[in-house]
Design brief:
Blueprint: H1 3-19, E1 23-31, E2 34-42, E3 45-54, H2 68-85, E4 92-100, E5 103-107
Parallel strand pairs: 3-4
Antiparallel strand pairs: 1-2, 2-3, 4-5
Protein name: UPF0102 protein FCL40_13985
GO molecular function: nucleic acid binding
Organism: Ferrimonas sediminicola
């Protein structure tokens, strides 16, 4: 998937999650540890959202791309982000949103 297509899908997911009651804070947050696709809030909880897109469910599907190594990178990136914002004690969770063939699936507290 091209970077441009990835950003389009991330924006669509951001709007979809906003319709579900989440509030967007940031997108495409970069650090030396990696990237956070979306940072949102639900109540007082920070929600780090990893977006995975597949045109078709081949290669094990979008969820299969969230490997233990990827989870580790996301946790490190989120910890860095929390520290930078001064929010180290704020409750947070990691969600995954998969988009496959037009179907959106939202996995809350994915890891």
């Amino acid at each position: 998937m091209s970077r441009h297509k990835g950003h389009i899908v991330e924006r669509q997911v951001q709007h979809w999650l906003a319709d579900q009651g989440l509030t967007p804070l940031a997108c495409n947050v970069h650090s030396r540890f990696g990237e956070l696709d979306l940072v949102m809030t639900q109540g007082n909880e920070l929600v780090f959202v990893e977006v995975k897109y597949r045109k078709t469910p081949g290669y094990g599907g979008a969820l299969a791309a969230i490997t233990p190594s990827k989870q580790h990178k996301l946790r490190r990136t989120a910890a860095f982000y929390l520290q930078q914002q001064g929010w180290s004690d704020r409750p947070c969770r990691f969600d995954v949103v998969t988009v496959e063939g037009g179907q959106i699936d939202w996995i809350q507290n994915a890891f």
